[in-house]
Structures are given as structure tokens and as C-alpha cells.
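Following up on my earlier thread - several people asked me to post the actual chain instead of describing it. Fair enough. Here it is, all 154 residues.
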Amino acid sequence: MANRRDKIRLNPEELEVFIEEQKSLQVATINQDGTPHLSTLWFAVVDGEIVFETYTKSQKIKNLERDSRIALLMEDGLEYDKLRGVAINGHAELHTDPEVVHGYALEVMVRNNPGVDREMLSKAAEHMALKRTAVVVKAEKTISWDHTKLGGSY
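Reply from S.P.:
Thanks for posting it. Predicted structure:
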């Protein structure tokens, strides 16, 4: 008989669909004093990895330059029996080359601005890439849950 954790875990296909449904990503990095730094941003999935871009001078990038450990959270549901989510721990791979950043920024923009002309988004991403760093998350541990699988039992 499967334990509760096994029962609520998302299978690979469910996990892919869940991530695709999400818009915002909670990102945790480690401040210099050891405390967590949390932020929310948009993301994309490129070659099976979560990617985002942000200002190079941002606190999260400064933290990742010092310590590449990163934690991510995506979740939804407002009632216990409807809670779903995924938490990912791993390391961040940082990219500062404007051409590389442009590619990742464009994917994030296309994903989060449906219906907007790709060429227009590409021009915006090109401009953004000059002051931003792209982050590719190298996942090491993924934990997921879907309380709808409990069928109302706790």
C-alpha cells in the first residue's frame, strides 16, 4: 500500500502540465548573512529546465554569484483538499552574455505574453539583455504534491 507522500506525488506528465499552468515562480536565494531572500518572477522552461532573467544588480543575482544554491516554489489552491505544488532545490547557472540572455529573456516573454508579436518581444528582450543575467536552474531535488488525489480524506 502506497504511503501518503507517494499517493499525492505528481507523476512526470502531471508535473510538466502543472508547471506549464503556472505563471509566477517563487525564488529563494541565500543572503550574505545566511537568511533567505525571496522574490517572485516570471519564468520559462527551456530544454526541460526552468529559466528566468533578472537585473544583474539584483539581490538574487548577487546572492547566486556568492552561493549558487537556489530553491523554487510553484503552488496553487486555496483549500487544503485542492492544494497542489512543486518545490525544487538545485544550483543556478548564471549567463551574462547578452546574446544568451536575449534568448532566455525572449522565451520568458513569449510564454508570458501570449498573442504579442514575437519580433516585437525580441526587440524588447534584446534591450533588456544588456542589463540582465539569465539563470538556468539545475534541479537536484523535486518534491511535488496534489491533495486532490486524496479524494477528500486527510
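The helical segments are 4-8, 12-21, 59-66, 98-112, 118-128. That should answer part of your original question.
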